[in-house]
Amino acid sequence: MEIKKLISLKSKNIFQQTLHRAAYKLKLDKQEGKLITNDELDTLWDLLNETAGFTYKSDQENVADDKLINFKEFELVKERLNNPKKFNSYFKPSIFVRFPGDESCRISILQFYNYVLRKVSLDQAWVDLAKYDLDCDGCLNEDDLNKYIGDLMAFMNLPNITISFKKFYQCTAVRKFMFFLDSMKLGKIPIINIILSPILTELFELRESEPLEGFEKRNWFSAYSSQRVYGQFLNLDTDQNGMLSREEIAEYNNGTITGIFFDRLFEECQTYKNEITSILEMAVIKKMVTMGYEEMNADDITV
Ligand SMILES: [Ca+2]
Ligand SMILES: [Ca+2]
Fold first, then answer.
1. What is the pLDDT of residues 152-183, one digit of tens each?
2. Statement to judge: residues 144 and 234 lie in one domain
3. CA of residue 151 to ligand 1 center, whole Å
4. Which PANTHER family does the record associate with it (predicted)?
5. Any idea which ligand is nearest the CA of 276?
6. Same domain for 46 and 85?
7. Residue 55 pairs with which residues in a beta bridge?
8. CB-based burial, 243-254: b 16+ in 10 Å, e otherwise
């Protein structure tokens, strides 16, 4: 009787989970259908340019001219869009007044368009990440993020990444998100925190077909940065067990690390059997050595 009851409860739970997942997927599909496409964004930009009745001529050499639009023209742009309903949330008076206006209450079309671009990009990121939220709790755990980054890597600018290094890269990228965004060590991060984080923006820079000059050295996720830190990690890992002991780390920076520094370091990093386990932690060491551990906080740690 008891077993039957347990089986019945289990079946009920499975049914509820399946139903919950199906409802979540439906919601995601609906959200995805509402996303503004690149063609629609191009049309918006063209219409803003055509409708704007005033051009601000800059008298500074490095500042480009900008077109300004009043509220009447703003509403006209919406009417001329092919699918105005999709843009409803952008063409509200409350959005218009958010932007600084000139003496005739006209706003910059460039500022407005950049706002739309940013919001569309966040909506797209939310939908993309939510697809990996298998238990539909609005958060991603390490496994979810691992799958997300693994899939994203196919579209990232990562030249010369070998198949064997790919696994380490993926793991390190995930650890970076967990290290900074899961400070309470809950093992998961709310999706909203991920999409609003500069870490995701940094990761997305690698999706650009033409990233800004010098991104390899500046961007933590670039192939150059990750391979450099990984190389340092391997050099220090003299017993090749994939972890760094206190003795091995002591060799870093020509052996100048102090005992107090070690204590602080091992407090800050996730360890296994009191050994540092990943190249992210290696990056933490590097930053702590550069800055002095007293001054370091989570926001400072980038390679
Ligand atoms: Ca989840
Ligand atoms: Ca070792």
1. 999 998 887 888 888 888 888 998 899 889 98
2. yes
3. 17
4. SERINE/THREONINE-PROTEIN PHOSPHATASE 2A REGULATORY SUBUNIT B'' SUBUNIT GAMMA, SERINE_THREONINE-PROTEIN PHOSPHATASE 2A REGULATORY SUBUNIT B'' SUBUNIT GAMMA
5. 2
6. yes
7. 67
8. bbbeebbbebee
